[in-house]
Amino acid sequence: MSDEDIQFRNTLNPLNAFLNSSFNSFHQILIFACKQFSMKRIISILAVILLFTSQANAQDSSFVINGNLEKIKSGTIFLKIYKEGETFKDSAIIKHGKFQFTGFVSSPYFASLTMPERKEDYFTFYVEPTKMQVLGRGDSLKLLMVKGSPVNSDDQLLKQRMKVVSKWEAANSKLYEAAYKEKNRRVMDSLDQVDFDILAAKRKVVAAFVKEDPNSMRGAMAILENFGYYAEASDVEPLYNNLSDKIKNSLKGREIKKMIDTYAKVAIGKSAPEIIQYTPDSSELSLSSLKGKYVLVDFWASWCGPCRRENPNVVAAFNQFKDKGFTVFGVSYDTKKDRWLKAIADDHLDWIQVSDLQGWKNATSAEYGIKAIPSNVLLDKNGTIIAKNIFGEKLTAKLKELMD
Q: Most exposed: 15, 192, 225, 307, by fewest CB within 10 Å?
């Protein structure tokens, strides 16, 4: 496995690289994220992308952005709106410090303002269907502020509430980068667990934020961003129930309800939905054909660094329990067959592997609610889900409990 295969970090500022890249499709953004970022950053970007793509098929309304920059009297400023799986780009001329953008959006979308001569400088915010102002000195775009936008006002409030968690996350990232440089996988594994603790802390902040203001659209967006992966219906439903009817009936409210329904279908105690995809030799194979064994359905991809680091743990579990009625059903989120096959060989994955080679559009993503990998579900001999997202020592411990 090469360093390129397990790349987690980039020495460039990841958000800066993201904002200064040109994407024409959802698929391009996903490929970029997976090459550039760690698991948690892939997840964060994916959560935001999913938030954008969920907003298709809604009625657009007009927005107006009036800008006023005290220190920049002329030039060109660029707006990017990450909308419905695509990046919409526009530009405006700055005259006497003022500029304007107009357009149509159905709901709040993540956006950025950049200037060509300032590669390291950018301003991120949300465009929503209203008239808003972007104001500031302009000597640093990052210090601009938005007025007249409820979503952006609530976003600032949420960031303030997240301040302690964000510092914790930044510190953990630095430790992770150091461990990666040293190729210390033991430390990286332990820091991955810290990431789950950080996620739990974020979710507590979001829950309190939603409870405090059930009518906040930013609160609904935060639910989608922070509970869109590694979550259960029981985690999300209380937050949804706390939302006002107005937010529940909004596009984002409907997306939260859809997410809850998906999680409920694959909850522990439910029968695993059927998976029928193709093996490396192009034979069709079904998950249900493995009934009679304990089965770990393992969602992974060759390009996913955390998946590749988890593979030795799955290999060890497979070899320890394969003669006791246990097997693995690997579902790859690859798009390139040659890379998929190479990863299978390199990582010694001697169990059933299937894929539809559709990447994140794999049919299981919607059926099982898979928005982050590695992910897994453990099935009993009847095909009933008995555990979810158990990795490393937790996987081994669960299998020992079942078989020893």
A: 15
